[in-house]
Design brief:
Elements: E1 11-14, E2 17-20, E3 49-55, H1 61-64, E4 89-93, E5 95-96, H2 128-136, E6 145-148, H3 175-183, H4 188-216, H5 221-247, H6 265-281, E7 287-291, H7 307-311, H8 317-343, E8 356-362, E9 377-381, E10 389-391, E11 400-401, H9 402-413
Parallel strand pairs: 3-7, 3-8, 4-10, 5-11, 6-7
Antiparallel strand pairs: 1-2, 4-9, 8-9
Helix pairs in contact: 3-6, 4-5, 6-8
Length: about 425
């Protein structure tokens, strides 16, 4: 058996570009598990979609959480704008990520892991939407859409989406840009440039695969197995690259909507939701996040003061009422989105809402006190049995991991997983209809 020592600085080369090898026994005592992106087919029938909506300043606990539990709970003031959908959503109490840090921890809403702690976890701080996006791959033109109603700044940005490498996915912040990406075909010159880039990348991967096969003859059995894992991930990239390249030559959907212009918060927010509904309906994407940053212009809602300032109400009634206006606006827009999804019928006769999980919440449990405990979370649609307020146990200030809910959502999406990030399993009591 040939088992030569290979230096870690050995690279596979092709077309003037190098790709580092995975860690092999031949390089020393360290080992590394190759990670390949999942790209399995969607469940049978109309595909399941996932939409996650969030803000960095939370939702007032005493206005958000209902009283009572089960099916006979009393709907809270903040959730009153979605009363008509009571049977289509579930409210959860006592779910969080068991972390603290105020504004710095809020960005872990969809992952459960603060970005500075990402290196301590096998999949980093990947967010639930990006895990689902990996599963979809290039089966849709956009594996995911990441959006925000405006830019935001600092910790008041909506940093909802994170890759497994700890990179925050920047959002599209203008409805016009989103419309053009979704529904306006590209200029032929730009299209040709993108085609050339795909061709170059394909050539590099071909060369890498060829050289790896030659290299494998110099390796022992254990290293050959690791290299095979590595090559499997390369082939997966090749497959996705090929599928992505195919989208270049497929015309974008034609929709009955004019390109949005610039406007106030009350104009742009509905525009984002309308575009998102169309993106799901045309199967341009199956995964999306939409953030409402903490820097939105509250004057558009008839208020004087900043969103962040209102969130630090300190129980002052005037500030609380102002914050309630801001938060009710967000819930109302979500309700309008649910209306639209329920109106759209799928080929199998179900509604788009039946096939779309819509999560709304925040990584901030209480903006006034900067608490990241007992996070506000609502889940609508997706084929789950809804219509309840589910209160989970709290033992010595420890609550059920919110990642358990995400695990349930990912399983519903089609992933064969037992846990997600900091979760201990799936969420007890959440069942399919």
């Amino acid at each position: 058996m040939i088992n030569k020592r290979i230096n870690r600085r050995t690279f596979l080369k092709g077309a003037g570009v190098t790709m580092a090898l995975p860690l092999l026994e031949s390089m020393g005592p360290m080992s590394m598990k190759a990670v390949g992106a999942a790209a399995k087919t969607s469940p049978v029938g109309s595909p399941i979609r996932m939409v996650c909506i969030g803000n960095p300043l939370g939702l007032m606990p005493d206005s958000f959480f209902p009283t009572g539990e089960g099916e006979n709970y009393k709907l809270s003031e903040l959730l009153s704008p979605i009363t008509k959908h009571r049977k289509d959503f579930t409210v959860f109490s006592n779910l969080d990520h068991d972390i603290s840090g105020g504004h710095s921890a809020v960005h872990a809403f969809l992952s459960g892991i603060k970005d500075q702690d990402a290196s301590d976890w096998p999949e980093g701080n990947i967010s639930v939407d990006q895990r689902a996006s990996e599963f979809v791959g290039a089966r849709t033109r956009f594996p995911s859409l990441v959006m925000s109603v405006g830019e935001g700044s600092g910790d008041l940005k909506c940093k909802l989406s994170w890759t497994r490498n700890g990179v925050n996915v920047p959002p599209v912040t203008r409805a016009r840009d989103l419309f053009r990406a979704l529904f306006v075909d590209e200029d032929p010159t730009l299209l040709q440039k993108r085609q050339s880039a795909y061709d170059i990348n394909a050539s590099i991967l071909d060369a890498v695969s060829s050289q790896a096969k030659i290299l494998s003859q110099q390796l022992g059995k254990a290293d050959q197995d690791k290299l095979d894992e590595y090559l499997s991930s390369v082939r997966e990239v090749e497959k996705k690259l090929g599928m992505s390249r195919e989208w270049l030559h497929k015309p974008k959907p034609v929709v009955d909507m004019e390109e949005p212009g610039e406007g106030s918060l009350t104009y742009t927010t509905p525009a984002f939701y309308d575009l998102l509904a169309l993106a799901l309906q045309t199967d341009s994407t199956r995964v999306a996040t939409l953030g409402v940053p903490g820097t939105i212009n509250t004057a558009d809602l008839g208020l004087s003061g900043s969103y962040h300032g209102f969130s630090h109400h300190g129980k002052a009634e005037k500030l609380r009422q102002g914050l309630l206006v801001i938060e009710k606006f967000q819930v109302k827009q979500m309700g309008r989105f649910l209306d639209r999804l329920k109106e759209i019928k799928e080929p199998d006769g179900t509604s788009l809402l039946d096939r779309t999980m819509v999560l709304m919440g925040s990584g901030m449990g209480n903006g006034s006190s900067h608490s990241n405990k007992n996070l506000p979370v609502v889940l609508a649609g997706g084929g789950f049995k809804h219509g309840e307020h589910k209160i989970y146990p709290e033992v010595k200030h420890k609550r059920v991991p919110l990642c358990n809910l995400y695990g349930s959502m990912l399983q519903r999406f089609g992933l064969e997983i037992d846990t997600f990030n900091k979760g201990t399993g799936t969420l007890t009591g959440l069942e399919l209809a």
